[in-house]
User: What shape does this take?
Amino acid sequence: MKDPAAVALGYVENAAQVDVKKYPGFVKGSTCENCLLLQGSAGNNYRPCSLFPGKLVSVSGWCKSWTPEM
Assistant: This one.
């Protein structure tokens, strides 16, 4: 995703590609799939995210706004 908001939040489609030097707050095992901000139905590989209206994110992805599910 080349969306400016995604770039600003450090979004990657695969959490294994997170630059931990640039994002030291990265928690191993955190992905969009276990983020509170992810929306849509479980089982889909790409789902809506409340941060990116009208766009889909990879459930394997990550950004610096990752928030653990409650």
Observations:
- The radius of gyration is 11 Å.
- Residues 1-70 form a domain with the High-Potential Iron-Sulfur Protein; Chain A fold (CATH 4.10.490.10).
- The chain has a mean pLDDT of 95.
